[in-house]
Design a protein that fits this description.
By secondary structure, this protein is α/β, with parallel strands linked by helices. It folds into two domains: about 10-45 and about 150-220 and about 325-395, FAD/NAD(P)-binding domain; about 85-145 and about 220-320, D-Amino Acid Oxidase, Chain A, domain 2 (2-Layer Sandwich). The protein has helices spanning about 15-25, 45, 60-70, 75-80, 95-115, 150-165, 210-215, 270-275, 290-305, 355-365, 375, 380-385, and strands at about 10, 30-35, 50, 90-95, 115-120, 140-145, 145-150, 170, 175-180, 185-190, 195, 200, 220-230, 245, 250-255, 260-265, 310-320, 330-335, 335-345. The strands form four sheets. It has an eight-stranded mixed β-sheet, sandwiched between helices. Strands 8-2-1-12-19-18 form a six-stranded mixed β-sheet. Helix 1 (about 15-25) crosses helix 10 (about 355-365). The longest helix has 17 residues, at about 95-115. It is globular and about 60 Å long. The structure holds flavin-adenine dinucleotide (FAD). Flavin-adenine dinucleotide binds near residues 42 and 350.
Length: about 400
Amino acid sequence: MDLVREAEVVVIGGGAHGASATYHLARAGRSVALIEKRTIASASSGASGGIIRCHYSNPAMVRLAHRAAEWWPGLADELGHPVDYVNNGLIVAVAGAADAAHLERAVRMQQRVGVTTQVIAPEEIEHWIPGFVTEGLQLAAYEAEAGYADPYAASTAFAAKARELGAQVYTETTVTGLVMSGSRVTGVETNRGTIRTATVVNCAGPWADRIAAMAGIDLPVRPGLLQMVAFHPRYDGWTRGSPTWLDLTTMTYCRPDASGAMLAGGGLAENAAIDSEAVDPDAAPPRPPVAFEAEIHENLVRRCPWAARAARLRAWSGPDGNSPDFHLVFGPVPGVAGYLQIVGGSGNSFKLAPATGEALAEYVTSGTSTYLDLDAFSVTRFAEGRPFRGGYQMHIVG
Ligand SMILES: Cc1cc2nc3c(=O)[nH]c(=O)nc-3n(C[C@H](O)[C@H](O)[C@H](O)COP(=O)(O)OP(=O)(O)OC[C@H]3O[C@@H](n4cnc5c(N)ncnc54)[C@H](O)[C@@H]3O)c2cc1C
C-alpha cells in the first residue's frame, strides 16, 4: 500500500495512545495517517498489565482516569471489536499513618470527582478475596468501577475502527525524520516516503524522546522497563472477577485475567530501579530475572497463602517512556508549531488511552480539552517547577 502524500494529522506510534488518537481523529472527520514501525501494540501497550483504575493522588489525573473509565465498559460496542474489558473492582491496601492519611484524602478527593470508591477496613478485603491476610495493614480503599482490559485487543480495536472510518494505518513503516520549516513541522519522513502535514502527534512511547529530537525538542522522557509474571492460582476462590489488589507495603499488585490466572508485578526492587536503568527500547525485552519472580510470588503468598500452590505460567517485561514525575505528558510544546505529544506513560497510562485520544482530537479541533487539564499535563510543568507529586512511594501508582 502506497503512503498518502498528505494528511491533516500524522500520528507516530501504534500503541494504545496513538491508536486511540487515530480513532478519535477519524471519528471527528479528520484525515489522519498512523505510522507504526512494527505492528500495532508491539511495544509497551502489548506488554501492559491492563489495569484500569481511578485511584490516583492528583485531581487532574483522577479526572482523566475517570473520563477513561467512563469509556471502558462500552468501548467494545463503540469500536465493534473486542477489548476484553472486565469490571472487577480494585483494592488498595496501605500500612503506616502517613500512607493511611494519604489514602483517606485521596479517596475523598476521588469521590468529589465522581469515582465510586470508599475507605474500608483491611478485614473487609476478605469479603472479596477469601483468606486474604491483613497483617500489618492499616487501611484500604475499594474502587468498585475499576477493571481491566486486554491491552493488545484494545489497541488493535482502536486501529481497526480508525481504518474503517477512513484513517490510513501503516504498520512496518518507520518515521525517520520530521520536515521542518523554521520551527514549524510540515511533514513526516518515513522509510517509504514523505507525508505532508500541518500536525504531527508523537505517540512513540519509549522512543518518544527520539521523535521529539527530530523537531529539536529535548523531551525529558526516558525509556524504562517493567516486568510481570502470571500464575495459575490452583484455587477456585480466585476468578476472573476477583478484584485487582495493590499492597503498598510490598509495592506488589495482582489482577486476574479472563482465564482466571493471577497477573502480578511491581515489587520493591523494580520500584527502586525504575528510573536508574538505561534501557534500549530497540533491544528485545529481557526475560525477568528469577529474583523478580521469587519476590512477587513471596509477596502474593504473604497476602494470599493459597498462592503457595500457584503454578508459574509465564513472565515478561516491556518498555515504557518514563517522565520525571511518572505521569503522562500531553499537548503542544511552546515554540514548535504543528507538534503535539501523548508521551511519558510511565508504567501506568494504558487505562487513559480512550480519554487521551478523545482529548487529542478535541484539542486539534478546538484548541481546548473538556476532561484533560492542558496545563497540568503540559511538558512545561517540569521547567516551571510544578510536577505532579505522587502521594505514595510506589512511582507507578501516582
Ligand atoms: C509490564 C507493563 C505493565 C503495565 N501495566 C499497566 C497497567 O496495569 N495499567 C496501565 O494503565 N498501564 C500499564 N502499563 C503502562 C502502559 O502499558 C503504557 O503506559 C502504555 O501502553 C503506553 O502506550 P503508548 O502508546 O504511549 O506506547 P507504546 O505502546 O510503546 O507505543 C509506541 C509505539 O511507537 C512505535 N514507534 C516508535 N518509534 C517509531 C518510529 N520512529 N516510527 C514509527 N513508529 C514508532 C513503537 O513501535 C510502538 O509501537 C504497563 C506497562 C508495562 C511495560
